[in-house]
Amino acid sequence: MTSESSAEPSTELTSESPSEIPSTAVDYSSTYSAAKDVDPKDLAELINFLPCETPDQWVEVALQRQDILLINHAYLEKCAARTALNLMFAYPDKPELQRKMSRLAREELVHFEQVIKIINKRGMTYRGLKPSRYAGLLNKEVRKASDEKLIDYLIIGALIEARSCERFAKLAPHLDAELAKFYTSLLRSEARHYKDYLTLAQSYSKTSIDDRIAFFQEIEREAIESEDDQFRFHSGVPSDYLKRG
Questions:
Q1: Which of 53, 75, 54, 76 is nearest to 63 (CA)?
Q2: Which of 1, 77, 158, 228 is the most buried (most CB within 10 A)?
Q3: Assigned CATH for 35-244
Q4: In whole angstroms, what is the distance from residue 89 CA to residue 72 CA?
Q5: Rounded-to-integer distance, Cα 119 and Cα 32, Å
Q6: 198/1 Cα distance (integer angstroms)
Q7: How far are the Cα atoms of 126, 161, 201 from residue 154, in angstroms, in the given order?
Q8: In contact, 112 and 81? CB cutoff 8 Å
Q9: d(Cα 144, Cα 152) in Å, to the nearest integer?
Q10: pTM of the predicted model as reported, rounded to 2 decimal places
């Protein structure tokens, strides 16, 4: 699932793994109990790839504002499909990107339809919402040259998919049975999407992408850990104003 406006390139394999993500002995099974169907090694890699965990304050507000959570989630699934299609149109000479992004776009549109079904079942109305700051903070640092732009967008795509997976896992244990089951069902595909983006980024770069990953990780950390006056799926720590609301 891609965040708002992360679809800029209309201007996300080698057998090698992307810049090695350090393995860890940390057991995430308690914090991310909903991710029991995700391979523990894959889950550890994904969590370690992210610069921080989702703050508990965000989870608390998400549970109170499930209407906004679901409406924004549906929109983000469309954004994810759009990003994948934009990359396909921008880079038609890259067959592995074409294959992976085609599959990703189809999956994200199915997810969109599934979220809309839940929204309708719960008597909510899907509508447009002001986008969060999250994707904009990442996208404004994308380089201009075509090859560098591709690498940056793929890294951003990996971060967004990893964050989405992490938030699904953190939310699921606190949700009602229907929504918990749905969010848990998304974990494996979101984890694969993150890996696809990251592997493509390394495969298309002539040099290590570690520095660029670290650069965008710090931007992502700031977006997640700093105070935010707006609640969205990828928003930061809710301000006192949001907590009171």
A1: 54
A2: 1
A3: 1.20.1260.10
A4: 26
A5: 25
A6: 14
A7: 29, 10, 5
A8: yes
A9: 10
A10: 0.87
